[in-house]
Amino acid sequence: MSYLHPPSSLPPGAIVDSYRRDSGGVRQDQSTDQQLTELEAYCQTYNLVHRHHFVDEAKSGGSTAGRDDFNRMLDLYARPGQRPHGLLLWNYARFARDIDDAQFNKIRIRQWGIAIHSLNDSIPEGDHGRIIEFLIDVANEEKRKQTSIDAKRGLKDLVQKYRCVPGTPPRGFKREPFSIGMRRDKTAHIAHRWVPDPELIPRVQKAFAMKAARATLKQIHDETQLYNSLNSYQGYFENQLYIGTLRFADLTIENYCEPMIDPKTWDAVQRILRANSQHKNLTNPETHPRRQNGSYLLSGLVRCSRCGSPLWGMTSKQRNGSYYLRYACTRAKRRRDCDFKPIPAHVLEAEVIKRINAFFIDPGNLHELMELHQKQIAEPSSEGKAVVRDLQKQIGAVHRSIGNLVSAISESGHSKSMLNKLASLEAKDIDLRTHLNQVKTQAGTIKPALTQEKIMQLAQYMIAHLAGKDPSIVRQVLLAAIHQITVDRIGNCVHGVIQVKNSSGGTKKTSEENREMIVMESNRVTSKRVFTAELSMKFVPVSAEHLDVWRAGLCQLLKLLLQEDGGCRL
Question: Which residues have a Cβ under 8 Å from the Cβ of 214 and sit 6 or more positions away?
Fold first, then answer.
């Protein structure tokens, strides 16, 4: 093979290094080895001393990020005693396919006194040579951009025209070969469709059924073993391919395959996922799973008046097999610097229910709650705006990742892992943009107002459910109406204040005449102590911190009540 003669700055005996790179395409598995063979033959031909050879495999030329050997080479050259006479390249496209990176790094290397020579780019010595070199860098970048566009177009056409999808299918599906014709070299062009895997369908259906029944990921994993780890289930239950819909880039193909999951189960799972997404901040006492699902009605609502810490449910088993339930200060247990004494759960809960029951006897209170709810849902909350900003930030990051990955695909084909990653990123982009549109749409949705008659009926329903035996319904009522309860125990007397959410800006307490003492007997077997409870009520505006939680609890409860009343909807 004939080679371009080295420049005059690289005479026989000159010490040179070499840099090689490939983009990881399917036909490039031997590319860097072939480059090395040619570079070594070139050094032998022109009597050059080949010192170090740097190589980056399966790396895009659109950026220097992730090109470890390239960056190691620059770090080495920054030390004067480690600089060779020249750097050999197979061609300038191996060095960089971004014009800014190419120009900047070549200037740095040349300022260190190192000549750069391409074996396949004919560039004359002198000032005119720099102009030709610049044009080559421009052409390399344009080729990268054009190949990126072609790669996206080709993948989209493959999906849209032949229903063939690159990459690894989600669990429960398998790749089925599909012939789409002949290549130019007369070899068969085989792509793959994603089809349900009969061996995995029962396990997939079981996983969705368990999720719809609110099973934990660990329980689902133990039963189905769909993946090797719990982390692999991220996004699994949101993939619409399980109901027959394929989403690829900006394409949505209905009836792509036979659905594995029926609509009822799918909808139930999505409701659970949406509810869980609203409770990501586990520091919120009202949404922490343990406090939501516990047997203590006031868990997450009641606080110690002495130190401000939340109270927790402390359960002790008695000799007769019964359980003694108390509310205790978390700080008193954790740090031992609060002298708050536990309060029997039934004493505190009964008084709170009594007070809230009296609150709902007046339909005007419920009306004020609903007015605030209608006002708040008509405009985006601060949390909603934060969600929009976060989604936009995530979309931007995904777009940058797609751009970097497509740059890697742009050079002479693509690898299986790169196509998998590209498909995953584009699916994530669609999901994020869909979620963003939903958030923006929901932010401006205004529900119709309820009539006075309906509000009075709802007030009666509230009272009836507070007196019911279903603790989950009672807790929904309490979460919907109560902002916070602050209590203290002095001897056998319990004093406290219930703060009820209200649309008024200020706070007010009930009159002293409405405050009464009650006497209830403790259920503790070891001693028949008598406790008294004295709780007053005051109204507070709904804070931004608790608005979404309160709104979710109130709407869930009202929807339940309205459905029982014959189908009226909020």
Answer: 272
